[in-house]
Amino acid sequence: MKAEARHSEIHGTGLFAIEEIEKDEPFLEYVGNHLNDEQLWDQFYSTYGDNYKPGDLHVWAFEVREGLYIDGDVPENIAKFANHSCEENCEAILDGDQVWITAKRDILAGEELTFDYRFPLRDFLYHPCRCGKSKCCGYIVAKEERPKLKKILMRQAPHKYRLKTTK
Ligand SMILES: [Zn+2]
Predict the structure, then answer these.
(1) What protein residues have CB closer than 5 angstroms to ion ligand 1?
(2) Helix (H) or strand (E) run with residue 14 in it
(3) How far, in Å, from the CA of 86 to the mean position of ligand 1?
(4) Residue ranges for the chain with pLDDT beneath 70
(5) How many helices (DSSP H) and strands (DSSP E) are in the chain?
(6) 127 alpha carbon – ligand 1 mean position (Å)
């Protein structure tokens, strides 16, 4: 095992490299119970009842692809502790129905391991990002959705983003 879970400055418990990890190395499987759509909703409702807010589903289950999810809340799955970052050093790569946390670059022992959670834009307000990177867009949103998010944020609070308005 090349990673361990411990306290993170980003959020709660994070995942950290305990030895060097090479670029493109799939070093940790995201394990858990595979669920189809029906099982996902059954379990989601039995966990949350009606007390959920939009976006909870993304936090709770890992979407492998449409119609296939992993409930990673099992003790052997330390990959669930990996935080999101806007400048991530890992990515979740699919191998059939399995998900592997894979290094995007060479990683040193002690670095926090992060990946892009790829949350959809529509629920962004429920998932503020605290990754602290200079490129942080403020919310946990899939990389390709971030330019759209920026436009929304600028429209809502132009003064915050130093946008010059012309009349
Ligand atoms: Zn961020």
Answers:
(1) 86, 129, 131, 136
(2) strand 13-17
(3) 4
(4) 54, 58, 161-167
(5) 3, 10
(6) 10
In angstroms, what is the span from residue 42 Cα to ligand 1's centroid?
Answer: 32
Which of 3.30.365.10, 3.20.20.140, 2.60.40.1670, 2.170.270.10 is the CATH number of 3-117?
2.170.270.10
Q: Residue 143's pLDDT is what?
A: 96
Q: What is the pTM of this model?
A: 0.86
Q: The tokens of 167 are what?
A: 């009349």
CA–CA dist 32, 118 (Å, integer): 19
User: 32-41 burial string, b = 16+ CB within 10 Å, else e?
Assistant: beebeeeebe
Sign for the CA dihedral angle at 136, 110, 99, 61 comes to negative
- What confidence score (pLDDT) does residue 60 get? 75
Q: How far is the CA of 157 from the centre of ligand 1 (A)?
A: 19
